[in-house]
Amino acid sequence: MARKNLFNIADADAGRPSFNTPGSESAQPEPLTISQPIDETDIRRRQPYREGKRAVMFFLSEEAFSQMHVLLARQGRRKVQSLMEELVDDWFRRENAPRVVK
User: Fold this and answer.
1) Is the pTM of this model over 0.85?
2) How would you write 42-65 as a 3-class SS string?
3) How many Å apart are CA 102 and CA 89, to the nearest integer?
4) Could you report the per-residue pLDDT of 13-59, keeping only the tens digit for each?
5) Where are the beta strands (DSSP E) in the chain?
6) How far apart are CA 66 and CA 48, in angstroms?
7) Sign of CA dihedral 25, 28, 33, 38
C-alpha cells in the first residue's frame, strides 16, 4: 500500500505574502561588499585551551550530571575540562599507556 502524500511542496507558499523587514516596505537591500580580504584564521578562531586538541563527547544520566557539577563546585569551581583530563590521564596510567596530560 502506497503512502498518502500529505504535503505538496509546490503549494507551500501559495497565498502567503512575501516578507518585508519593518520600515523598508519598498526599499531594496544593498548588495554586501567586502572592503577587506577575509582572513581564514578569523573565521574559525579557537579558544586557546582547544588548540591542538580534539573533542570527545559522551552522555550522562541526569543524576550523574548533577552530582558531577555539585562535586566540581565543592572543589572551588573546577572546570569539567580539567576533570576529564585528569580522568583520562588516570585511565592511561592504569593501562600502562604513555601519559599525555601534564
Assistant:
1) no
2) HHCCCCHHHCCCCCCCCCCCHHHH
3) 9
4) 566 666 666 665 555 666 666 666 666 555 567 688 788 888 899 99
5) none
6) 27
7) positive
